Amino acid sequence: MVRIHARQHLATCLLFAFSIHAADLFSFRLGQYVFAFVADTTPIVATVDQERAAQVGWEWAQRYYLATELYLLSIDLQNEPTRFWLIQLMADGVPVYGVVLPDGRVVTPVRREQL
Question: What are the sequence ranges of the domains in the chain?
Answer without folding.
Answer: 6-113
